[in-house]
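sorry to bug you again but im stuck and you know this stuff better than me. theres a chain ive been looking at and ive put its sequence and its fold in token form underneath. id like you to explain what the token line says about the fold, in plain words if possible. anything you notice is useful, everything is just below.
___
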Amino acid sequence: MAMRPDVRRHTIIIIVFAVAQWAFMRYILNEQMFNLTTYERIVYFSGSSFVAGFGVISALIYMVVKGNSDKS
């Protein structure tokens, strides 16, 4: 059975947004655009990594649950 196109598109959008958000935060931290202490940089990096990972995993779970819902 094929994946529904709207579910696939939503999943790809969520994954791209999560990775772009993580890359943007990583760029900000690497270039030291704001005057952040080491502790603040660690917190922001950890938070952005968690949010990006949660977004990717949530998108994949959404794709599996809603992708082939022909039985409903």
